[in-house]
Amino acid sequence: MTPPEDAFFTLHRDLPREGPGEPADVAWASGVAGLQPDARIADVGCGPGGDIAALLDAAPRGHVTALDKTAHFIASARVAWGDDPRVTVLQADMARIMNPHDMIWCAGAVYFLGIGAALKGWRRSLARGGVVVFSEPCWFTNEPSVRAREFWSEYPGMTDEAGITRQVEEAGYHVMGSRRLGSAAWEAYYTPLMERIATLRPQADAALGALLDETEAEVDLWRREGGDFGYLLTVARPA
Questions:
Q1: Can you tell me the distance from the alpha carbon of 16 to that of 185, in angstroms, rounded to the nearest whole number?
Q2: pLDDT digit string (tens) for 70-112?
Q3: 52-71: buried (b, 16+ CB within 10 Å) or exposed (e) per residue?
């Protein structure tokens, strides 16, 4: 039987991204932040590098340092971007960002540290006027469905939009802007994932089959009840 970790990487191998997102998210955040064409950007928890192209579009004369702890994702990012002098790909801990950056971008991974801990820890790695941009799971209703609550029960820190703003401010930052990720961002993640499931299903053993079932249920939950929850993209600058 396939070990759970192996099953995960079998499913997620060669996917373009590891969470919801689209180039329009990067463009919006860059505009809010007033990002300059030569900006230094850290893509923290970069996964396979799904946002690197959009970050380079936002700063065409800049540099992106993409980092992730997972060797599999770093290998994929290096295949795609290893020859581009504007990109450095590192296997590194997202809690330790070296050198100053004009933008620290973290798509869907800040929950590993917590908003407050991440913002406080990253402040020393921001250049003057720099920003942190992160997306975080968020309730969009005061009465989410039972099914949605059950799915997100493993993330007890999940809050609403006001709760995210409060945590940002408590960390010594102010919110320059925030917006909910749209359907296109979710489809950019889920459409390739569902195609991968269809490819793997005929040969899946019990462990992999169980993971495929869980992932299909996750996608179905979003399609049916995605109005109850989502990701909030926040641009924050030290106060």
A1: 12
A2: 999 999 999 999 899 999 999 999 998 989 999 999 999 999 9
A3: bbbbbebbeebbbbbbbebe
CA distance 218 to 157: 19
What is the full DSSP assignment across 61-87?
A: TSEEEEEES-HHHHHHHHHHHTT-TTE
| Torsion 88-94-95-100 (CA) sign | positive
Pick the range with the lowest mean pLDDT from 55-59, 129-133, 190-194, 206-210.
206-210
User: Is 8 domain-assigned?
Assistant: no
- List the CATH number of the domain containing 128: 3.40.50.150
Return all residues near 94 (Cβ < 8 A) that are at least 6 apart. 44, 45, 67, 68, 69, 106, 109, 112, 113, 118
Q: What is the pLDDT of residues 155-211, one digit of tens each?
A: 988 999 999 999 999 999 999 999 999 999 999 999 999 999 999 999 999 999 999
Residue 158 covered by a domain:
yes
Tell me what the pLDDT averaged over the chain comes to. 95
- Counting the structural domains of the chain, the total is 1
Nearest-Å Rg of the Cα atoms of the chain is 18
In which domain, by residue range, is 59 found?
A: 18-183+229-238
How far is Cα 28 from Cα 41, in angstroms, rounded to an integer?
A: 15
In degrees to the nearest 10, what's the CA dihedral of 175, 30, 219, 165?
0
Q: How crowded is residue 224: how many other Cβ atoms within 10 Å of its Cβ? A: 12
200 within some domain: no
29 within some domain:
yes
CA of residue 88 relative to chain centroid, distance: 18
Q: Which two tokens stand for residue 66?
A: 């993409």
